[in-house]
Amino acid sequence: MILKEQPRLRHNKVLNVFIVSQIPKRISHPLGIGFDQIELFLKEYIRKDRDEKTSTPDLGLSLSHIEKIEGIEEMLSGIRQSPLCLIEGCTSPNNGKALKEFIEKIGINNPEIHAIDLIDVKTFLRNYGIEMPMTTFSVGDATNLRKSYSDSSVDVVAQDFLLNCAPYTTHLPIMQEVKRILTPQGKGLICFTDQQCILGQEQITYQQVQKELGLRFNEDAFCIRDLLPDDKRYDLDLKEKVLNELKGKVLVNGREDRYTLVTTEGGNFEFFQPFDSYQKILLQSGLEIEGMEKSSGIDRNGITCVRYRTVLRKIK
Ligand SMILES: C[S@@+](CC[C@H](N)C(=O)[O-])C[C@H]1O[C@@H](n2cnc3c(N)ncnc32)[C@H](O)[C@@H]1O
């Protein structure tokens, strides 16, 4: 497949507006920007043999945990009827349906469900004859939603491990956007995993990566390809060479607050931080945790993780 650079100006088909991505110039694919070998990454979500125990979770699974948070109905009681709900980072086809059913179950009727992702997940799914029921999907960048959503216009924002798939430099802008678009009574249903799960993996520091491979680690990178020099970005042999050196390893920044797992899937990265670091980002964004469920599960790399499923509110 021929990979070519895509313009950073993206067209939002639903709203018929152009969105300028905040994400720096990086590798792109006909289906979108961000991860490498997008199809390999997405295929996990349409596997026929998916099950709760061993598959990468989806929003439906997270909502079944959020449902168990004590006082959840009270927490969500200020949400108006016919709410606008936005799923950020949406790879599973059934996320919209699951969110709609969750909202209706707590007595709020007629939710309108939107979903965005940097990748055109809808087109990918369509190629496999799969629909995204009850969901208005568009390609969008959660770091900048100004053209699509005005201040205080969204009642519920849901993220299912988006932060574990988003480079560090984007975390604060993403959560600041959540704060901006939420209505005063609106809630964030935000799920993330901390770093404990990958502490057993072999570690390599940013400095070692530079010394041994001549590559500078950028905290805005999604994948190995983002670390390669501009003129070598599409050099498959070089990418494979770097991937062979780094796969399964965790890149660490030495301050014990950033742990980046290099997955075997296309050399894509997964991003992990201690719980306190997430909390700092939330506070800086003007958000706080109102309710939380903590449990463990197995991720796509077969690693057992601690998963935090939170209900967020705006700090008054
Ligand atoms: C772990 S996946 C979400 C999967 C999720 N568990 C589900 O149920 O669909 C994270 C997604 O976030 C997307 N993503 C990362 N950064 C983003 C951003 N700035 N804006 C929108 N989507 C983003 C990635 O493209 C990826 O598809």
Quick synopsis:
This protein has 316 residues and is α/β, with parallel strands linked by helices.
Would you mind describing this structure in some detail?
The relative contact order is 0.16. The protein is globular, with a radius of gyration of 19 Å. Helix 2 (59-66) packs parallel to helix 4 and helix 6 crosses helix 10. The chain is an alpha/beta fold and 316 residues long. Strand 8 (154-160), helix 6 (168-181) and strand 9 form a beta-alpha-beta unit. The model is unreliable at 1-12 and 14-24 (pLDDT under 50). It has a 7-stranded mixed beta sheet with strand order 7-6-5-8-9-15-14, sandwiched between helices. The protein has 10 helices and 15 strands. The longest helix is centred in the middle third of the chain and has 14 residues, at 168-181. The chain folds into 2 domains: 9-194 and 273-314, 3-Layer(aba) Sandwich (Rossmann fold); 197-271, no CATH class. Bound molecules: S-adenosylmethionine (SAM). The site of S-adenosylmethionine has 25 residues, from strand 6 and helix 6.
Task: Give short descriptive properties of this protein.
2 domains, Rossmann fold, single chain, four-stranded mixed sheet, seven-stranded mixed sheet, binds S-adenosylmethionine, globular, 316 residues, disordered N terminus, alpha/beta
What secondary-structure arrangement, pairings included, does this model have?
Blueprint: E1 9-12, E2 17-20, E3 28-29, E4 32-33, H1 38-43, H2 59-66, H3 72-75, E5 84-88, H4 95-105, E6 112-117, H5 121-127, E7 136-139, E8 154-160, H6 168-181, E9 182-193, E10 203-205, H7 206-213, H8 224-227, H9 236-246, E11 250-252, E12 259-262, E13 269-272, H10 275-285, E14 287-298, E15 304-314
The structure holds S-adenosylmethionine (SAM).
S-adenosylmethionine (SAM) is lined by residues 34-35, 57-59, 88-92, 95, 116-119, 141-143, 160-162, 165-166, 170, 174.
